[in-house]
Each structure stands twice: as C-alpha cells, then as structure tokens.
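Internal tracking record. Fields below are filled automatically when a chain is submitted to the structure queue. Please do not edit lines marked as system-generated. If the sequence contains nonstandard residues, flag them in the REMARKS field before resubmitting.
Queue: standard
Priority: normal
Entity type: single polypeptide chain
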Amino acid sequence: MKNTFLVLGYNNTRISDVVKIRSLAKKHFDASVVLCKPRPTTEDQQAVDDTIDVSLTAAPENRTTVLESCRRKDLKIIGILPFSDQGTQLGASLSKELHLPGGDPNLIRAALHKFEFRLSETQQSTIPNFYYPIKAELITSKSDLERFMATMNNVAFLKPAQE
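SYSTEM-GENERATED OUTPUT FOLLOWS
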C-alpha cells in the first residue's frame, strides 16, 4: 500500500500550493497526494499524483467514492487536508471514519453556514469575556422580519441563508 494524503478541494489560484504539498508529502512521508474535487482539470491532474472526481459534501456516497477509489488503487490514507471551505465537509466525515485528526462532522457544517455557526456559538459553555455573540435568527416571512426588527430597534444586518 502506498501512503497517501488527500487534498479536498482548493481555490484554483492556489495550484502552486498544491504542487508544494505534493513535494513535501513525498519528501517527508514518502507519500503521494490525491486531489479530491468535482471535475478535476488537466492542470489538477498534473499537480498531484492522482485525482478523484467527487463532490465535497459529507454525503455517504461521496465518502464511499473516495474510500473505494483509494482501496482499488491500493492507497493508505494517512492524512486529510481540506484545502477549501467546501472541502471541510467531506474532510471531517472522512477523518472521523478513518480515525484521523479532523473537524467534528457534527459541527463542521457551521464552517459554511453562518446561521448554524451562530446557533452553535450560543451553545458554548465558555466564551472569552471580550467576545460578544451576535444575535441571529432565521427569518422565513415578512412577519418574522418585522418582529425581529422590532426587537433590534430597527437596526440589524441581514444575510441570506444558504441551504
């Protein structure tokens, strides 16, 4: 089996960083680098040892796609690097399944969804004295908005929720 690091997504302007990751993985771990992302390009394929065409959501079928592809290629995953915001989702899921260091799959959705971040923030038992959590509420109707604005003295920042 060949030791392998998975790189999950990346901003296309960071291709030189992916090449650098590949070099360091080889030098320090004698490991290959496999880039997981939707629709890998020729440039992607040239920057790494292998690619896997997969969505970066934490859906079970995406984990299966990555794990089965690595199994078929006789690759042993020794590390996971979510290299994009989107990559955090599949990265946390794979890390947990493989018992590797990574984000908590139950909390990682908050990395992409501000409202979920604000909800998880309110559930923390300890926060620094200097930190003031922001009030957040999911608005689904005009009456929700009117009620919320009244509680905020008609001063609020509104942000569209992502699904």
